[in-house]
Specification:
This protein is α/β, with parallel strands linked by helices and 417 residues long. The strands form 3 sheets. It has a 6-stranded mixed beta sheet with strand order 4-3-2-1-11-12, covered by helices on one side.
């Protein structure tokens, strides 16, 4: 017997996507409906592939529903699967933990939520499949839930459903921590994981898989998003392949403008790469952050005319039906920094101060403390995190320091020394 199983996670249905209004020309309607349209694509994949089972590994919702429309849409989509006999088995994650969701709707007899108090097993006799799992009772689960999962059922294909960051993944809280090697020892054939938004087949013997989130929600979640299609033949998994189901594609487009002599040539190079990225998006709405890189004679103009640079690029992108979410300057003027640091004017003081911040962790710590004070005074929609500045991430703070130098040096250094 040959059939398909679909594994998805982190739907974050009706995620609010706060702060979009501050972006001029943002495709607000398309972005806010993206998670719903991606869910519809997931259900359509199950129908097209005649999937017998859909596994959902947590964070179906982004938090408590604003109203019942979120639950009604989810239930209506899953009802399409009931009509063809597809079973749905799901668990809760940190965003839709039992303690966070106060509204409830019946999803139908073909849908089964696994318990949050202890691991539970569902045996699908007709498919010879056993699904084991436990959802989150609270938003922050610090213990290894997998330790209490039951032994595999002999003669069945065993799936484990788990919301976890394993031993840790950048940008994700370390909930339900465990190790892939320990999961493998449980004897299951496939671990259907959730929580981490980047697709990853951690290992294949047995399978330990993050499908990634179904639809990216901001520019830090780049590339194709979707689910995993699992092919089962004669009681064994024979193929695991990703299927892109997103309707909006995010990209960070690095443009080397080392040969550009000014803003116009830099914008032309960016336009060419945006066109290539649009092709890779395969007809989806493309939301891009453009990052100019390289040592270039165009640096001073790009830095001085930051608003004009962004507007020029957005105008070109609008003609291409691409939304440029932001423009970041990571270029450098071909200055002799050693000579600049030796100067006794404001330029020399700036270069020396930036070097101290880059070289001394204690100095960076003092800066971060001051930025945290600033962040506490900001409204949520303009928080430093929303602007892409992660104060708990060393790489992000070092990049921030470099950005300060790139913006200020062309304004105060004058001509090349």
């Amino acid at each position: 017997m040959r059939f398909s199983v679909v594994h998805a996670a982190d739907l974050h249905l009706d995620s609010p996507l706060v702060g979009l209004e501050r972006y001029e020309g943002a495709p607000v309607a398309e972005l806010r409906s993206a998670t719903r349209r991606a869910l519809a694509n997931l259900v359509q994949l199950c129908l097209d592939e005649d999937a017998k089972l859909l596994l959902l590994a947590g964070d179906l919702y982004d938090g408590d529903w604003k109203d019942y429309s979120t639950g009604l849409f989810f239930a209506s989509q899953l009802a399409r699967l009931r009509e063809v006999g597809t079973r749905v088995i799901w668990i809760r994650g940190n965003h839709d933990a039992q303690s966070k969701i106060t509204r409830h709707l019946s999803l139908g007899e073909h849908c089964t939520e696994l318990a949050t108090r202890k691991p539970e097993t569902v045996l699908l006799d007709k498919l010879d499949i056993a699904v084991h799992g436990q959802g989150f009772a609270t938003a922050a689960v610090s213990e290894d839930l997998s330790e209490r999962y039951p032994p595999p059922i002999a003669g069945a294909l065993n799936f484990g459903l788990l919301h976890t960051a394993l031993g840790g993944r950048r940008g994700h809280a370390s909930y339900a921590p465990c190790e892939a090697s320990a999961l493998a020892l449980r004897g299951y054939d496939y671990w259907a994981l959730g929580h981490v938004h980047q697709r990853e087949i951690v290992q294949s013997e047995p399978y330990v898989v993050f499908p990634g989130n179904l639809q990216a929600r901001h520019v830090r979640e780049t590339g194709a998003k979707g689910a995993m299609l699992i092919t089962v033949e004669d009681g064994a998994i024979t193929r695991v392949e990703p299927r892109a189901l997103d309707v909006v594609r995010f990209a960070q487009v690095e443009v080397d403008v080392g040969q550009a002599r000014g803003l116009g040539e830099a914008a032309e190079l960016a336009e060419q790469q945006l066109i290539a990225e649009r092709t890779r998006a395969e007809g989806r709405l493309l939301c891009a952050r453009v990052i100019f890189t390289g040592r270039t004679q165009a640096h001073a103009e790009l830095a001085r005319e930051a608003e004009r640079t962004a507007s020029e690029l957005r105008a070109r992108a609008h003609e291409l039906e691409i939304w440029v979410e932001g423009v970041k300057l990571a270029t450098e003027h071909p200055y002799d920094l050693k000579a600049l640091a030796a100067r006794e004017d404001a330029t020399g003081q700036l270069v020396r101060a930036l070097r101290v911040l880059e070289d001394k962790p204690s100095a960076r710590g003092e800066l971060i403390d001051e930025l945290r004070k600033l962040e506490r005074s900001l409204p949520h929609e303009v928080s430093l995190s929303a602007l892409g500045i992660e104060l708990n991430d060393e790489q992000s703070t070092q990049a921030l320091i470099r950005d300060v130098g790139r913006m200020l040096l062309p304004r105060i250094a004058g001509g090349e020394p």
